[in-house]
Structure formats: C-alpha cells, structure tokens
Write a structure and sequence with these properties.
Elements: H1 2-21, E1 59-65, H2 70-84, E2 89-95, H3 100-110, E3 117-119, H4 127-131, E4 140-143, E5 149-152, H5 156-163
C-alpha cells in the first residue's frame, strides 16, 4: 500500500512539472496595447537604441515589415509616402528581410525615405521581433512625443484622418 502511494505521488509530481513547462502565459510584451510605453528599439548591428521620442505635437510611426510579406510591405510603402508629406510624423521603418540586398532593393523600389529605414539582420531571432510580439504578424505603432503607443495597425487613410 505504501509503495503504491509513493508511486502515485511521484507520478503526480512529475505530471505537474510537465504541465507547468507547457504553461503559455503571455508576457507583457506579447500584447503591447494602447497607453503602454513602446519597448526600446536596439538593432543588432547598433550599440544604442533608436530614439522614439519627439517634440511636443510630433509623432513617431514605427512600422515593421519584410519583403516576403506583401501586405506589410505595401502598407509600409503607403505609410512612408503619407508620413513623408507631414512634418509632424517621423517614420521609423524596420525590415526583417533575411538578406540585406533584398532589403535595399525593396526600399529602392518602394521609393521610401531611406534615412529612417533600418534592416534588422537577426530577423525573427532579434530582440525587437520578440519584444514587439511580431510572431503574430507584422504591424505598426503610432507613438506620441513620449514614446507611448496611441494607435496600432494604422493604415495610410487612418493616418491621414488622424492628422486632420
């Protein structure tokens, strides 16, 4: 009897440990929501983070994309043209393309402002990819002058309406 109780206890503890290892609770960065401060953007080939804060009355639009994701690339190009026409918006565009040559060709074809376009060479393995929760798909974030998220998944039309 004591022997079977011991085995039962061992199996119970073992199964509890296994079930805890599969616990998929979301971390705070899995769901960045409105009102949260945006995580730092430190590219793997840079030593300091990109500045996400702007002056009063100005905004930063952070757009994540890759050339292999047609929807994110098209939205990024459209947003780049809209943001380029308004001095109140500074756009930071980050590509997760696997190869720098593909990234450069895409920026050239899309005629985006290459001064604020960046290539994240670690792609989906980068800290940015993880901290912004991009495993569910590429997105963009509109930040206020303090780097606080005020809109998410903005389209070009929504950005124009917001600026009016």
């Amino acid at each position: 009897m004591v022997k079977s109780v011991k085995w039962f206890f061992v199996v119970l503890v073992f199964s509890s440990l296994i079930s805890l290892s599969f616990d998929r609770r979301k971390t705070i960065t899995d769901e960045l929501s409105l009102g949260m401060k945006a995580p730092e953007l430190v590219l793997c080939n840079e030593t300091k983070p990109l500045d996400l804060q702007t002056g009063k009355g100005r905004y930063t639009l952070v757009s994540f994309w890759a050339s292999y994701d047609a929807a994110s690339r098209a939205n990024n190009a459209s947003l780049s043209h809209t943001a380029g026409n308004d001095a109140r918006i500074r756009m930071v565009s980050i590509s997760f393309d696997r190869y720098e040559s593909v990234y450069k060709a895409s920026v050239g074809q899309d005629k985006g402002n290459s001064a604020h376009c960046y290539w994240e060479m670690d792609g989906e393995n980068s800290e940015i990819y993880k901290s912004y929760g991009l495993k569910k798909g590429f997105t963009n974030y509109l930040l206020d002058h303090d780097g606080v998220i005020i809109a998410k998944n903005v389209t070009s039309d929504e950005l124009q309406a917001f600026l009016k």
